[in-house]
Amino acid sequence: KPIEQYSKQEASAAALKLRTTLERWSQAYYTADKPMVEDHVYDEKYRDLQTLEHAFPEIITSDSPTQQVGGQVLPGFTKVTHAQPMLSMGDVFSFEELADFDQRLRKNVTTDFDYNVELKIDGLAISLVYENGIFVRGATRGNGTIGEDITQNLKTVKSIPRRLKEPLSIEVRGECYMPKVSFAKLNQRREAEGQDAFANPRNAAAGSLRQLNPRVTAARNLSTWIYTLTDYAQLNVSTQSQALKRLAELGFTVNPTAKVCHSMPDVQSYIETYQAQRDQLDYDIDGIVLKVNSLALQAQLGNTVKVPRWEIAYKFPPEEAQTVIHEIEWTV
Ligand code: NAD
């Protein structure tokens, strides 16, 4: 029946059921790196929970998946407490919802602003810490507050500079991914050896990074796109687009497709271009990210408990119905 006709008890019971299902799927996806369902199936159920909680705010619990960054720390890894939380991101699934996001922001700020629009890389979020220009620590996002120390594994990833072009002490963040070609070869090999194939490049990258033996990671041919840092003052920049330029100058691999868009029609045409070219890219993308370009405005807008208010993901529709469903199997 329609949500408007739910009693509070019914809403609460339905939310509990949704949370239980989402948590089971999240456990498989984040902890075991073996999803039980396709992302769009997860996204639809997550949306149902959001809608319920929006209609009945009193049923929201602090441990609801809508209030927390998904992910856990695997046993065996040293824990890293992030200096600043690594957040998730709000998402929309249509141009109408994207226009609503834009309208909401424009109501809240008095100045005009641009967006920096970027590809949403479907990999694993990583944090890289440099001291005086030397790579000293790398971590996963984990639950957003505490991640896994994967420094030794990340040292095997060739695109991650061991030494920056300038002796800066900074923390940068980005996405570690497995190129599609490497993914196909890896799965061929695994199947030939009688091992389970990975469901997709994202899970293969996550499984390859969250290994206790760095030699396994080294053999997996991972790569990175770096897109942010925690302290912009260090780079003396005032926009996201300038930050990307400086990150590239320091030696990081920065995706070349980012574009400053002045209007929503510009954003829409960027989305259409990359949605059409998606298959030709050598890495998986699951959408487009819109970021308010001005860093001062980003700071002014701030974050919710789970997501920044100044950015949103436009998620692509699912490519085709796929049926890979795996039993949970632990990677370490
Ligand atoms: P998300 O992956 O949808 O978005 C946030 C992440 O996007 C960031 O943490 C960052 O790592 C990444 N990102 C990629 N490109 C970026 C760029 N250019 N700029 C900034 N960030 C960029 O959100 P999430 O909280 O990490 O995960 C939730 C999503 O995971 C769900 O929407 C669902 O699709 C998927 N999921 C799937 C299952 C499943 O069973 N299939 C289970 C749980 C979650």
UniProtKB/TrEMBL annotation:
The active site is at 120 (n6-amp-lysine intermediate). NAD(+) binds at residues 39-43, 88-89, 118, 141, 175, 291, 315. Belongs to the NAD-dependent DNA ligase family. LigA subfamily. DNA ligase that catalyzes the formation of phosphodiester linkages between 5'-phosphoryl and 3'-hydroxyl groups in double-stranded DNA using NAD as a coenzyme and as the energy source for the reaction. It is essential for DNA replication and repair of damaged DNA. This is DNA ligase.
